[in-house]
Amino acid sequence: MPKATDIRIRSAACVFEAVTFRTPLKFGGRVQSSSFLMNVDVEVESRDGKRHAAGLGSMPVGNIWAWPTDAISGEQTEAAMKQFAEEVIALANSCNDYGHPVDLSYHMSAEYEHLGKLLATKLKLPEPIPKLALAVAASPFDAALHDAYGRLHEQNSYNLLSSKYMSHDLSEYLDKDFKGEYLDKYTLREPKASLPLYHLVGAIDPLTNEEVTKKVGDGLPETLGQWIAYNGLTHLKIKLSGDNFDWDVERVLAVNRVAEDTQAKRGCSTWVYSLDFNEKCSSPAYVIDFLKQVQAKSAPAYDRVQYIEQPTNRDLKAYPDNKMHEAAKLKPVVIDESLTDYDSLLLAREMGYSGVAIKACKGHTDSLLLGAAAQKFGLFLCVQDLSCPGYSFLHSASLAARIPTVAAIEGNGRQYCPAANKPWVKRFPTMFEIKDGTVGTAALNGEGLGF
Fold first, then answer.
1. Distance, first Cα to last Cα, the chain
2. C-alpha count within 13 angstroms, C-beta hemisphere, residue 282
3. For the segment 16-26, what is each residue's pLDDT rounded down to a tens digit?
4. Number of other residues whose CB lies within 10 A of the CB of residue 286
5. Residue of 367, 372, 369 lying closest to 383 (CA atoms)
6. For residue range 181-230, what is the model confidence (pLDDT) as tens digits?
7. Domains in the chain, ordered, with CATH?
């Protein structure tokens, strides 16, 4: 039934903000040195028309990650995703429906694939725009809608997810197993006070002084050891190649040597790693052999591996033999690039994946829904980054702080594009001035998305 708390979109607008990287970031065999933020403003009104509020959403374009291809250039994929973001805004401005943000976003997203096909034809692209790229381009609108809804009701958006505000239970979006359940069951009423911060060790990032070929010279750390000491880090995400076995093993061992030396100097005895192959492994056997080799050469390094992000190709249906059951017996194996909807989550479970990576860039609505499903299924949960600076990082952190079983948050904007954080540092110092390896997510308890 319609709710008196429902909203309607009055207007939406998108602007693009150029972001230059401090140092290049290599992942999945590609190097990124700049990006654009998609900044979306949405104004909404109450069902009675008496109240208005505005919300903001922001997200990097992230085309290198969301749309890896050799068929067209990175400039073309970036331009197409930016244009699709504008298509979403046009769709929003033509929407006259009332509803909860989850409903409005869910129903609008049913049009995205069709809009993407039309845009690909219009731009004469040699391949379709991937579903993941469409989701990333639409994500700042989705966030802005939830933000505006909370601001209109003068409450935190995460506290407006119960049957009091939502017209449908989760069976409407997932399946009958969720009948009678709402998102408030799978989210917290207050954000966690703090979360450990995962620091990214990129494939070309220097680990030691000897590896620094040219100093950045901006006062920030230049090496991994310096970053650990500077931020008091206890969580390191290591980017690996996936197609160079010996290099991958040695990279983990090298990171571990630097970490052991630096942590000993600061009196830290406990820290962990996550490993990200960015889908480049040829098979699950690569992962299993890799883990066994790391364990043979350094049992402490192996023990510190907390989980592994999607090691093989994101197209699960095209590679049905890439089952992760045996690898997941060694360490949690988390689905990431493949996770675009509930069906992909179910398929990943069948194929042996034991965890789920939630990303704000895939959409706030889908992140909440898939986070709920992951919890119900008892899957390992983490929240990953898209080199999100400023507002987009706060959004990502707010998700991690409100999903009960998420234990850490990745945030590498401070490493690669810190200039984009500057407008936010004074307002949220606990989120951007890292001293003890954690971010102070207690600050994300305001109206809307919390900041």
1. 31
2. 7
3. 999 999 999 98
4. 19
5. 367
6. 999 999 999 999 999 999 999 999 999 999 999 999 999 999 999 999 99
7. 7-167 (3.30.390.10), 195-443 (3.20.20.120)
